[in-house]
Design goal:
mainly alpha, 2 domains, about 230 residues, globular
Length: about 230
């Protein structure tokens, strides 16, 4: 009842401005999480507006309209993801804390060994991480991690695979990457950014990025991680 009251007090203009965005994102996550009611997702998104007046005010002051809307959409998708993964856990009878997310740093660390089939590199990566490290929902089976990453890599197109292999597995610098890929991109930096986007796609193929901590702070920006 308290949440419903806070949502009811949202400014009418705010509801009008973001109604279409809320509807679209609610439908998007309902399609991804069929066990979660769409109306509940929508309510969670409107609740985000009620809980984050400082962020919204700061973004509107500091950003142009397009950039502000992008930040709000990113935060709404984060709120939807956070809500849906918890509801899925309840529906399927497990603890949401047991969800395992492939972090970008973790994937990047294992790629050299996995994609070159060089187990010495994989051993080095394992040592750097600490051999006792285990995912909450996994047995710490590094070969399974490698198989998952290889499968996610296989879903990239040929150009993306080449960028990831050279930049992250072979560790060539951005200038060499630009030359080796005969890139139509104007600069070495742009080519490196394309490799980074391909790496992000691998993470999404592995289940995506986890929800980020979303605070409403008058001075500090959100801890906003990269989302699809």
């Amino acid at each position: 009842m308290e949440d419903a009251g806070r949502i009811h007090r949202l400014k009418e203009q705010q509801v009008n401005d973001y109604y279409d965005m809320v509807q679209q994102i609610a439908s998007e996550y309902r399609n991804k999480y069929s066990m979660v009611d769409r109306a509940d997702i929508e309510q969670e998104l409107w609740l985000w507006f009620a809980e984050h007046p400082n962020n919204i005010a700061r973004w509107k002051l500091e950003q142009d309209e397009k950039s502000c809307d992008k930040l709000i959409a990113k935060s709404l998708r984060n709120a939807a993801l956070d809500y849906c993964v918890k509801e899925k856990a309840v529906a399927e009878g497990y603890n949401a804390m047991d969800n395992f997310w492939y972090s970008k740093d973790f994937v990047k660390m294992l790629i050299p060994g996995v994609l070159t089939d060089n187990w010495e590199k994989l051993e080095t990566a394992m040592t750097n991480m600490g051999r006792s490290t285990k995912a909450p929902s996994e047995s710490g089976d590094w070969m399974a991690y490698g198989a998952d990453i290889r499968h996610a890599f296989s879903k990239l197109d040929e150009i993306e695979q080449n960028l990831v292999f050279l930049f992250y597995a072979q560790d060539v610098d951005s200038t060499q990457l630009h030359e080796d890929t005969n890139s139509e991109r104007p600069t070495a930096k742009a080519t490196a950014m394309a490799a980074n986007r391909a790496l992000n796609k691998i993470v999404r193929n592995l289940g995506g990025f986890p929800p980020f901590k979303d605070d409403d702070n008058e001075e500090e920006p959100n801890d906003m991680q990269e989302l699809p």
